[in-house]
Amino acid sequence: MTDVPGRPPGVTHGDAAYWARIRRLVAQAPPLNLQQQAVIRAAFYQPTDQKERAA
Known about the structure:
3 helices, mainly alpha, about 55% helix, about 0% strand
């Protein structure tokens, strides 16, 4: 068995059970505030062009 990145080592259940667990955990978490949302967006929407980064 190969380990999947982001999954605990040695997990033997299938993808459906894994994602069901993730959905349960996410449903229990409090909502993100606007500052937390902004930090996440900034991390994912970085300009890829050097000129865009300099602007």
